[in-house]
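Worked example 4.2. Below are the chains of a multi-component assembly; read each line carefully before continuing.
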Amino acid sequence: MRHLLDTKTLGREEALRILDVAEDMADTQRREIKKLPTLRGKTVVNLFFEDSTRTRISFEAAAKRLSADVINFSAKGSSVSKGESLQDTAQTLQAMGADAVVIRHGASGAPRTLATSGWITAGVVNAGDGTHEHPTQALLDAFTMRKRTFGDDSRGRDLAGLRVTIVGDILHSRVARSNVWLLDTLGADVTLVAPPTLVPQDVSAWPVRVLYDLDEAIADGCDALMMLRIQLERMNAAYFPTEREYSRRWGLDATRLAALGTGSMVMHPGPMNRGLEISADAADSPRSTVLEQVTNGVSVRMAVLYLLLAGATDEREDAR
Amino acid sequence: MSTRTVLHEADIARALTRISHEILESNKGPENLVILGIPTRGVTLANRVAALVSDFGGLPVPVGSLDVTMYRDDLHRNPTRAPQPTQIPPGGIDGKTVVLVDDVLFSGRSIRAALDALQHIGRPAAVRLATLVDRGHRELPIRPDFVGKNLPSAREERVNVRLAEIDGLEEVTIES
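Applying the procedure described above to all two chains together yields the following structure tokens:
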């Protein structure tokens, strides 16, 4: 694997390989000494043009557990605020000897530009670009679903027949997009539930079923119910009248939680707006996987960095 | 290119039986033993040795697997390998005598990696090494305690161990 840019072009074999390696990484995280010497001498740069806490910390933890050196770069207070272009920033990192660049950018497609422009030879991992994709989030969600469903017997399995319902702001959500493509590749059945104003126009081309009523979707039953965050920073247009109305119609409150079968898991990529899209009852219930998702995120990102950096790349083989 | 079979099914069975007796003899019984195989074929061999040791010693001996992929020093020279599961028996390895089992002992680098991996899991009282074939050409100061067969080989030759559970037949061959 050279880069991880999206889940749309990620094949089934490659996706399962990442999930299986993540299982092994998760095993090592239960040991007394969690650090592995695997990526000693490699440098991972976290290049974050957008605010992020959990994704950046998760990547940082993953890289450090594999003994890589981590350099954190956030656009605020950096040369970017002085007007430096992506190309110059990238070439600076290249000159410092970065082996992998983990990038989050507000513009959809920025990671692909970085990977294909020839500016740098480092592997590129997309940590969220605009409203395009957030592949490691989808991988950790799939990992969590697989682990909850199959337990220790997860290795090698896909998600065939698993019914996943994703609720909320689909329009702005890169998490939803990445999940739709990956879950489809892994054989799951995906239903999207959202106010009509928050459903993307091109959704008819997606391998999903779209509903507008959360109660109807819950009555249909599902194995995993994923609540998305209402991205208040992107709500510059009036997508719904008030937060209270959104919460009443599309929020997961105690009544809806009770209506949901006891076998279904409740997921949220975080950070949660408690009381808006998810109630405290739902977030703290034993069916909630929110904290498991965080733990699994480190294992999945360790797997991605391992697969990206551990083996010989073509250039390095040529150099020998 | 020629291929020669150096151990047949019965030879492998005899070698493992002898190794199991030697383990019991050097440990003065089956107490406090943990047998760990190095994937892939080392695990198969470890399971067989553990069954024999339990049988001869009259006490079930815990067995598991120890993956060394993430501790190797040659990762960046080869295409990415997928790690294999590590399974440590519930009793752990602290204060135990761990017997590592591998199929072929060659440069000694896998065993070096295994010692590092063990150190991250616990602190055994002692670590021993059993191998079905020792083909020489060591690059590190590592020697086996229990050997199925010493097999003088040229560095370019390939030694293949095939086991019924994985390959459908039992043999050790040398290719030159």
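Take a moment to check your reading of the output against the notes. The CA atoms of residues 53 and 271 of chain A lie 9 Å apart. Confidence is low (pLDDT under 50) at residues 314-320 of chain A.
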